[in-house]
Each structure stands twice: as C-alpha cells, then as structure tokens.
Amino acid sequence: MYEIFEHTADLGLRVRAAALPELFVDAGRGLFAMVVDDLASVQPTMSRELHVAGSDVTYLLFDWLNELLYLCDTERLVFSQFDLRIDDAGLVATARGEPIDAGRHRLTHEIKAITYHELKVERTSDGWLAEVIVDI
To answer: What is the mean pLDDT of the chain?
Structure first.
C-alpha cells in the first residue's frame, strides 16, 4: 500500500507492506502513480529486467527507484507491474509497462530526482515502512 503526500515544493511517497519485496513493488507503483494520472492505464505490453546491487535496504530502495526513474526519463517508459526478489546482494526485478502514450497517459508530475532527504526504510511491528521524497 502506498500513499503520496505533499512535501514543501516536492512530493513524498509513504509505503507500508508486510514483506520487503512487497514494499519495493509498492514503491515502484507509487513512483509511477506520481507520473501518470491513472496507473491502471499503463498496460504491461513490454518488460525490462533490472538488477540493482546493494545490501543496505534504504540505499537499495533509493537505487531501485532511481533506476526506474532513469528508464522513464531516457526511454519514456512507464511501469505498472513488478515481480521482484531481494537477497543479500541486492534485487532482481521484472518491470512491466509500456512507452508513454500521450493519448492514454495523462502525465501529472515530472519527477526530476529521487532524494536522500528524509529517506527511510524501517521494520515495523506489522512489516515494513518506507518514506521517500522526490524532487518535482
């Protein structure tokens, strides 16, 4: 489950999940929910395999979202579905989505960067919590 919140001139993303891979999947979905008005409009017509190295879960989340944002910026891709596995070396994911289609995807925010400001990933009594601020 993710929620988007206002943060001064930026946007925040708060994610709660029972398991760490689910947290990363929901964070990816939350990121693209900031980019397109209706995430359900993003069809899984193509996929990308992503490998992100790292053992610290906070920085792994940062690098994961940064990789997704890079694909959005450079290849004009949006994603709505993710399969993800995390181990001690990092994560391996399959992201499914499509190229941005101006006729079907109403873009809501141009995300300039994922920031380290107030970045956190922590274990809670009922699973995991992450907070990320993005520069718009």
So the answer is: 95
Distances (CA, A) of 34 to 50, 89, 112, 125: 21, 29, 12, 28
Total of domains in the chain = 1
Give which of 32, 27, 33 is closest to 86, Cα–Cα: 27
* Comparison of pLDDT for 6 and 27, the residue scoring more: 27
- CATH number of the CATH domain containing 124: 3.55.10.10
pLDDT recorded at residue 4: 75
Q: Which residue has the tokens 């190229």?
A: 99
pLDDT in tens, 12-45: 999 999 999 999 999 999 999 999 999 999 999 9
Domain that holds residue 14: 2-135
